[in-house]
Amino acid sequence: MKQVLFFTILLSAILPVHASAQDKISTSIEQEIINLSRQKWLWMADKKADTLAALFHEKSMFVHMGGSWGKEQEINVIKSGGIHYKKADIHEVSVKIIGNTAILLNRITLLAVVGGNEVTNPFMVTEVYIKESGKWLLGSLSFTRLIGQ
Questions:
Q1: Which of 18, 21, 129, 145 stands 20 to 30 A from 118 (CA)?
Q2: Beta carbons within 8 Å of 2's beta carbon, 6+ residues apart
Q3: pLDDT tens per residue across span 58-96
Q4: What's the predicted TM-score (pTM) here?
């Protein structure tokens, strides 16, 4: 009986510490993803296509108001200036980690030049990152225009 009581007390003391440590790890990973996403917006504004190419997974997909395409076309659009992501004002960010996948939601106001026209749009942007070989890569970037914003 004493042994059962001892192990019960021991487990109740250890489990909250383990959960707390797990929360800190998760929070650290979430912050890493948030920082990576913010850096990505700066690279997009600066048209750093080669840097972005290293971030984008080979099989990455991009969804815009005017269509969807893969990595090569996204890089070409950025290089050519077909879309110039001038400035993303980030209003809200949330991150969920599922195994080696991170899903980030950004509510932003995007100032961009599209086809030579400067436009500002409110978006909810979904970014999906996959951790491969110890490195986070962007697997998907999707823009959903918010109505009434």
A1: 129
A2: none
A3: 999 999 988 999 999 999 999 998 999 999 999 999 999
A4: 0.81
What's the DSSP call for residue 41? H
**Range 35-40, long-range pairs (CB < 8 A, 24+ positions):** 36/129, 36/136, 37/93, 37/104, 37/106, 37/127, 38/90, 40/127, 40/138
With contact defined as beta carbons under 8 Å apart, do 51 and 43 qualify? yes
Strands (E), 3-115: 56-64, 67-70, 83-98, 101-114
Question: What type of residue is 32?
Answer: E
Residue (of 107, 102, 106) closest to 139 by Cα position: 102
**Mean pLDDT along residues 131-145:** 97
Q: Quick one: tokens of 93?
A: 């960010």
- Token pair 């250890």 is found at 14
The CA-based dihedral angle spanning residues 143, 139, 26, 43, taken in that order and rounded to the nearest 10 degrees: -70
